[in-house]
Amino acid sequence: MLIQCTKKLVDELKIVPGKPSDEEEPLLSWHANLLKIGRHKFIVLVNDANRYAIVLYGLKAKDKKNIEKLIVNAVREVFQAESIEEQIIDGYLQKSEALSFGKTKDRKLVARLNKACEWVHYGEDYWDPGEIVQVGMSKWISSLLVGDGNKDYIHPNEEMYKDLQEFSGQPIFNTEALVLKVTLKLDHHSVWRRITVPANITFTELHDIVQAAFAWQNSHLHDFEIYEKNEDGSVRQEYPNLRLVCDEAFSSESEIPVKMETGQKLKGVLPAKIIYNYDYGDNWKHTIEVERVIHDYTFNYPICEDGEGSVPPEDVGGQPGFDGFLDIINDPNHPDHEQMKEWGEMQGYEDFDLRDINMRLKRG
């Protein structure tokens, strides 16, 4: 594997780059740069073949001495998070085993590297200060639509999947998945989604999936309550044994153990009943149950298989507000009918549409 570094990165790592070479396969070659945002330092790597990006953060002196091993581990960790088969990852890394450093030499590839660095500035929501390998940010940047010359546009992650399949000569996804039934708790209304998700997702990713499947707009705080189950499938106790929270919702004043959701894997708490709480004002509660396990899932993104019901608009005022909203929009003679319909559309109120949901889920 060839890592072609900018001068800033060469100076930071205190390495002596080798002579330029044109023999390295583009898929096994990456351009890399050092990025500073305030006092924070990031290393951004972009694949020469497909513009897939991997982001590292907060390297200490000992990490810089082991940069070769760290880069290899970063590729493995991000590819694993993409649900790429382990044997495909092993094959890629074995072919890349002789890691070397060189200087950047291609202006077009440097421009692409700089574009990926720009996106790091906007990836605050995906930044995990506690980890060196920024898995979420790497996946997000690599999913963005980018120009590829001649008015062509690509998604780097999809191009990486194609390149790895061609490299290995076989499909790269064949993983375990979970079929989830997610039900919004509403009196007198049936609103639910059946979603198949890769089994290795984190709770942060599960939050994004529920937001997309229910057309929420991610405008409020959220948390997950975890209820352990007995062997017979019954819930073990009345109160949750764990609460997973986002940054802004963290509070130590609780009788229930509280952890940050960042990095927590869904499989790590199963079997369990999960309650996803969204918007502490309107208090929307979603029950999440695992219906079955699939052992040969051939995708790396969630798919909504079925569902029912329109989700309440954001900021409608909870169950009472939703009931009042429906009374008005279902009565063409109500003086606020048109205004309320328009407001509802602005707030994301829409009919259940499986195709639209799956478009949102695929793009993340």
What secondary-structure arrangement, pairings included, does this model have?
Blueprint: E1 2-5, H1 7-13, E2 29-37, E3 40-47, E4 53-57, H2 61-65, H3 67-81, H4 86-95, E5 100-103, H5 107-121, H6 135-143, E6 146-147, E7 153-154, H7 156-168, E8 175-184, E9 191-198, H8 203-213, E10 222-228, E11 242-245, E12 258-260, E13 272-278, E14 284-297, E15 303-308, H9 318-329, H10 337-346, H11 354-363
Parallel strand pairs: 1-2, 1-5, 11-12
Antiparallel strand pairs: 2-3, 3-4, 6-7, 8-9, 8-14, 9-15, 10-11, 10-13, 13-14
Helix pairs in contact: 3-4, 3-6
Low-confidence parts, pLDDT < 50 over ≥5 residues? none
Strand content: 25-35%
CATH structural class of the largest domain: Alpha Beta
In one word, what is the shape?
elongated
Global Rg: 23 Å
Descriptive key words:
8-stranded mixed β-sheet, 364 residues, 32% helix, alpha+beta, Nucleotidyltransferase, domain 5
Structural features, described:
This protein is of the alpha+beta class. It has 2 domains: 2-168, 2-Layer Sandwich (Nucleotidyltransferase, domain 5), CATH 3.30.420; 175-311 and 349-363, MM3350-like (Structural Genomics Hypothetical 15.5 Kd Protein In mrcA-pckA Intergenic Region, Chain A, Roll). Helices cover 32% and strands 26% of the residues. It has 11 helices and 15 strands. It has helices at 7-13, 61-65, 67-81, 86-95, 107-121, 135-143, 156-168, 203-213, 318-329, 337-346, 354-363, and strands spanning 2-5, 29-37, 40-47, 53-57, 100-103, 146-147, 153-154, 175-184, 191-198, 222-228, 242-245, 258-260, 272-278, 284-297, 303-308. The strands form 3 sheets. An 8-stranded mixed sheet has the order 12-11-10-13-14-8-9-15, covered by helices on one side. It has a 5-stranded mixed sheet with strand order 4-3-2-1-5, sandwiched between helices. A two-stranded antiparallel sheet has the order 6-7. A hairpin with a 6-residue loop joins strand 8 (175-184) and strand 9. The radius of gyration is 23 Å and the shape is elongated. The two termini are 30 Å apart. The relative contact order is 0.11. The mean pLDDT is 92.
